[in-house]
Amino acid sequence: MCSSDLARLALPAGTEQGHPEFALHPALIDGGLQLAAALAGSFGTRTLPFSVEEVSINAALPEECFTYAVRLPELSPALRSYDIHLLDDSGKQLVTMWNFVIKTARNGAEAASSSSLETVLDELKAGEISEDDATLILETILD
User: Fold this and answer.
1) CA-to-CA separations, 96 to 4, 62, 73, 83, in angstroms, rounded
2) pLDDT at residue 15, as a whole number
């Protein structure tokens, strides 16, 4: 499976000059998030944006830019995280979304599975995951 990818983004026709109040146009930000979803291989699977650790804004986004997404180590089968960079044509980082997490949606019966809880607690006890990761995973399971 691919661990990073690059895509070209452009504002939809008719919106190029229509919203100067947006330093970060939602259509371009969404394009970056969609690239992460594509890396997750989530087509046909219900996934939700779950969290983002930090957003760094170095400059306003132009009408067209590149997005580069890098898959980070997997938190759990239900949680995948990415760093998403929005770049100008010269490669300058304009916006970075650090540790953007995508959650695979599950039904309530699956989420409450005691075996899932036991697995997380066992991994925590064995030192295979950190307390922060365990908290994030448990919040997802118990959500």
Assistant:
1) 15, 15, 18, 7
2) 73
Give me the pLDDT at residue 75, please: 77
Looking up tokens 């760093």, which residue turns up? Answer: 83
Q: Give residue 18's pLDDT.
A: 56
Kindly list the structural domains of the chain, giving each domain's residue range(s) and its CATH number in brackets, ordered by start.
4-105 (3.10.129.120), 106-143 (no CATH)
- Residue 105: phi, psi to the nearest 5? -75, 135
Task: Give me the residues of the chain with pLDDT under 50, please.
Answer: 108-115
Helix axes 114-125, 131-142, angle to 10 degrees: 180
Distance CA 133, CA 111 (A): 17
| Contact yes or no for 69/36 (Cβ under 8 A) | yes
CA 4 from chain center: how many Å?
Answer: 12
Q: Check residue 89 and give its pLDDT.
A: 95
- What pLDDT is recorded for position 40? 78
